[in-house]
Write the structure tokens for this entry.
Amino acid sequence: MSDAAASEAQVTVTIDGRTVRVPKGTLVVEAARQAGIHIPVFCYHPKLKPAGVCRMCLVKVEKMPKLVPACTTPVTDGMVVDTRDPEVQEVQKGILEFLLINHPLDCPVCDKGGECELQDMTFNYGPATSRLADAKVRRRKAVELGPFIVLDEERCILCRRCVRFDDEVATEAQLVIGERAVDSVVTTAGGQPYAHYFTGNAAELCPVGALTSAPYRFRARPWDVSPVASFCTLCPIHCPVRLDFRHGRLMRVVSQGAPEENTFGTRGLMAAYHTPSEDVPGARGMGWLCDRGRFNYQYVQSPQRVAQPLAGRGALKELAGWDEALQRLEQAIRRAVAEHGPGSVGIIGGGALLAEEAARLRRLAEAIGTPNRDHRVADQAVASLATPSGRSGRVADLDRADVIVLVGQPLVEQAPVLDLAVRRAGAEGRAAIFAVGPVRPRYRGRVRYVPAAGFDMAAALREIAQDVAAAVAGVKGARSFIVWDGRGAWDGSAAAVGETVLELAGALEHGGSEVHILVPGAQAQSRAAEAAGMLPGPGGLDTAGMLKLSAEGRMQVLYLVGVNLLETFPDRALVEAALSRTPFVAVQDLFVTETARAADLVLPAVPSIMRSGTLVDIDGQTHRLEAVLPPDGAGRPDGEILADLLRRLGADGHDRSMPPPSEAVAALSPAEARRIWGVANGPVMAHPAAALRVVPLVRLYGGGGTVEFDPVFRKHREPVAVWLNPADAERLGVRQGDEVEVRTAHGEIRAAARIEASICEGSLGVPVGAAGGSAWQLTALSNPYPAVLALEVRTPEVVG
Ligand code: SF4
Ligand code: SF4
Ligand code: FES
């Protein structure tokens, strides 16, 4: 028998008299689960490596002299296990008694009360009475570990699930066990705040109420929330989530697969409200969520949501109702078409819309007769490069990759959970990682990083091409995975980088590797918008073209749907000019964003949990999103608003001409995709010769509606900063935290200096859409990586 066949071999085990056949190497705890027998666990978790620290799972195995932990013991053929032997029961009682010695009995007020494993285990396996006569040792309560996580030290049972997650999965190793023996406590390394993009998972994994989430703490009890299975709509991954509502209010977001896994499938309550689907436990990210997806939900119920249609540029006033609002837009469109032709109307949006809504937006452009339509509001060229190349990558392929090549802005800022898969592959030594971009990523394992931004990216990619090929050369059945951010739409660098990506893919294939390419969209629904055709029609203008025409005073109407161009478009001055020189600007959004403030008409939309339709995820797969709340206030779903407009313009509002979105995605033929790809082939701009160039940095918590208008996130939104490599900082005499003023040919910004070894030398990184400023204040369409003309350290004035 070959090794592979041997490892596939099945063995027979008897557990509590039941016989089960499982693959050789299966842990006793898992074999028992398959036999329908529950072994109590605390430290074990199917998504973490076994640790064997809590001893709750001890079982009796025939011919073994002592009890063994079921979570670290693999089964062998013919093994006979007893999980209910009196000796086992005695140990279980003892462990629970031990855990409860200092555990506070604050279950009635503990956030986890009702879904706590210690509570359940004590009920099922624990001692009936307490023998404790002495007072409990009290530890600190409500320790704020980081922005989202609170620790009640006295509830911790030291199972280390959180610490192991942070090390094994997040690979951040921020959480550690401090002190020793009875003083052991979960804390952060060096006392730093617990702050990375995945901290909520640690709280979700905690079997007791030691780690809780700050936004949810004391807001609801597990038995009075109504859970609904859904999808996160904040990035192109679209992780499966469970939304918990209380009296119609969204109280928390948890990972859809987690309740079952955390409680190890034993709790009827959880089992009842866990809706299994093919999406769970998630080829996409193994069921983890990022903190944005988990905690950025309070915007849904924000009192700042637009409650009524508004009109009046700068000094917005409530309109009587929808009829008046839509009449104004209809009249503006009709007037523009009659007096200046259909091309004087521009429609921008779709990247935040469900597939049907995006299709309806395209239909609206067609009904008006304007080819000027685009969904691209950042500098992303395409979201589906993979399609024309025939090498569409799927997230699941990443787990089998031998080589991973990452090109562009840090993956974690755009598709966080995808980055977790890369981290895991690196940490487990499964793949060699190559990264080309402006910021050095922090992966473990075999990593080669080449600093490069914009114009330099294609050259840097060529520089590593041979090493990438060498990394898979000797591997039988090798697999390569390339992730490119697709940015560089307006400066033309996307075309050069994209071509190099395809060249590299070709060379790898030639060398015998199976190649997958993935381009995460810049917006959550970029792929849906592409499939729906929200790209310029024949002879039409893209977003940049429309804005230029507007800035010249030659566009009559701009209709912006779910778009905050002042935050997202890489040329703020151009957007300002365009908005001020267009006679009629309509914005359809959830909030009065900066862009909406400059509009003539604001139409209140509703969040995705109040809309039904189709999501297209990063893999190109479609998912049905169901509205779980009715539209509130005067807000209306985008699809309804668009249908109404279509009717008013005399077009069919029901889009019978539109194929269902799943067909539209499938019909995105290589030829069509090539056409999309062709859009990116703009003129390549000149490389600016400069000692220091501005490099925009995409940030997960960057500007735009849902972060800016979320009470929880607004507090943690990073202030604008100027990132400098230590070598540049030293040369320029800038120290950490200095207030600096930076000027380019296009604008200036004042911000604190952040000395970052991860930013490439010669680059001055400025986050996009941070609080108090954005990289786009310094850049222009004609010059996306401008030279820094002046950088001055501002000495604070001494008062008095
Ligand atoms: S905080 Fe929770 S997950 Fe972490 S060690 Fe304590 S009990 Fe375990
Ligand atoms: S990775 Fe994306 S889809 Fe998943 S939780 Fe985070 S923001 Fe939502
Ligand atoms: S679950 Fe086995 S030792 Fe903790």
Summary: Residues 156-162, 186, 205-206, 208, 210-211 surround iron/sulfur cluster (ligand 1) (CB under 6 Å). Residues 322-340 form the longest helix (19 residues).
